Amino acid sequence: MRIVVFGAAGRVGRHAVRLAAERGHSVTAVARRPEGRAGVDERTGDVRDAALVAAAVEAADAVLWCVGVTRTSGGDVGRGTLPGLAAAMGGAGVHRFVGVSGAGADLPGDRKGAGARFVSGLTHRLARDLVEDKEGEYRVLAASGLEWTQVRPPRLGDRPGTGRYRLTSETPGLRAAPVARADVALALVELAEGRDWLSAAPFVVAGDR
């Protein structure tokens, strides 16, 4: 497969690039700064650059979206960019999209208990731009016609990946363990390889599948 990773220099994106390449895929890595990775087609620039995005997705089989709000990105980087990305994918005949969201995002159909509602409320106060942008991404994807999936980790950790994770519609509780960023990246790559969890935003938690 040819897999395009947006946000390829980020803390999840760089794992996604590495894992996709290790699994034998042809990888195009889009980021604001190059990483100098051998065997990877690196495209340097901002995801708001429509020409860069359109060129990157040509002849792709799947897109991984590892972009999040940062101090320099602007608070609407996701919901502002995804309409153009979806249009570029549609024009190129690319259907599979897998992205990272977060458990703090409140989405239609969620059945969050008291603990999870507390976490969501706290996230909306402390990281308002990030969580509102991810909720906006969901709305764009739901209207896009793409074969999309968003994964929602409760918390992210930098420990080494375990190669184990579980996707679930059950909301993680307050004591949910952090998920290694490498394991979130593995979930993205494996979802891109198939068609599970279409038009869905499952939670990704630590543990066996």
TrEMBL record:
InterPro entries registered for this protein in UniProt: NAD(P)-bd_dom (IPR016040), NAD(P)-bd_dom_sf (IPR036291), Polyketide_Oxido-like (IPR051606)
Recorded GO MF terms: biliverdin reductase [NAD(P)H] activity; riboflavin reductase (NADPH) activity
Transmembrane intervals: none
Domain NAD(P)-binding: 7-192
Gene3D superfamilies: NAD(P)-binding Rossmann-like Domain
Pfam families, sorted: NAD_binding_10
Name under which the protein is recorded: NAD(P)H-binding protein
Upper classification of the organism: Bacteria, Bacillati, Actinomycetota, Actinomycetes, Geodermatophilales
